[in-house]
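Researcher: Good morning. I'm working through a list of sequences from a screen, and I'd like to move beyond sequence-only analysis. For each chain I'm collecting a predicted structure so we can compare shapes side by side. This is the next one on the list. No need for commentary yet; just the structure.
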Amino acid sequence: MENTLKIVIPMAGLGTRLRPHTWSKPKQLVSVAGKAVLDHVLDTLKTIPEGWNIELINIVGYLAEQIEEHMEENYPDVNSHYVTQDNPRGQSHAISLARDYLSGPLLVIFADTLIETDLSFLKDETADAVVWVKQVDDPRRFGVAVVDEEGCVKKIIEKPEDLSNNLAVVGFYYFKGAEDLLAAIEAQMQRGLELKGEYYLADAVNILLEEGLRMRTEEVDVWLDAGTPEALLETNHYLLENGSGNSEEAARRDRVVIIPPVFIHPSAEVINSIVGPYVSIGAGCRVESSILRDSILEEEAQVKDVILESSLIGRKAEIRRRAGMVNAGDQTVVTL
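Model: Good morning. C-alpha cells for this chain:
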C-alpha cells in the first residue's frame, strides 16, 4: 500500500525486572500516568506524516493474548498483526520473524522506553536510516552511536567501556527499506554475531553501515524508562508534570485533599484521603482513609487505612491496615 509505514514493536520479553507485576501481565501493559506503557508508545505515532497509513506488527510472547485484547479494545481501527516469538533470541531475531509483513519504510520501536519526538520529518527524510539518540552522563549501560564530522553514523557500539562517546541509542529506528535490514539480519545470523545467545540489532545495523548505509542521528531531549519499578515511578513523575495529570478535575472531589500533580480515573472512588503528589489511580480503584504519594495504583486496586509512598499496586490488589500486637525485643526496629 502506498505511503504505508510498517512499525515493529518487539514485546516478547518476560519483564523480569518488573516482577511481581509481570507474572500476570506483559510489561507493556503495566500502568503509568493513567495509561498502559504501550499506550504511551503508540501516542508517539500521532505525529507521523499526514496521509501515511500505519501497519503495526507486534512481536509477542508471554501472555500475548492480553496484548491482542488491549489493541482490539483500544485501537480497533489500527491495522495490527501479531507474530509469536516463543524462544526470544534477541532484537534481530524478533524482527526476522516478522519478515512476511516487512517491506518499504519501517520503524522499529522497543517498548520499554518512551521518548518525545515529532515524526513528521519522515515525509522529507533523505537518509537511508535514522537512529534516535540522547546524550547521557554515563553511556556504558547503553549502545552508543559513533558519528563522523558530518553527523553521519559510522558505527553503533553496545555497552562501551569508556565515556568518550555519550550519544546513547534510545531504541527507536527508522529504515527507508525494510528489505535491506532483513538482509543484514540474515547475514548477522549467518556470521553468528550474537552476545550471550541473543542477536542485537546493533550488529545488523553495523553490517548495513559497512555496506554504505547513510544513517543519521535524531537527538531527543526526553527519554523515559519503564523497565524497573524505580524507573516507572520516575516516568510517572515526568508524565504527570507534563500533561498526563488531571489534578484540577480531581480537586473537585469531596472529602479528598489533592496535592498536584495526580491522575485519578473518573471511575475511581476516593474517600477521606490525601492524594499526591505524583500519584496515578486507575479505573475502578477504591481508596479510603489513606495517604498516597509517589505511587501508582492499577485498575480495581483497593487501599484502606494505609500510608503509601513509592509504591506500585497491581490490578485488583487489596492493601489494608489493621491493629496488631507487637512483642519487640531489645534494639528492635519495627516499621508499620
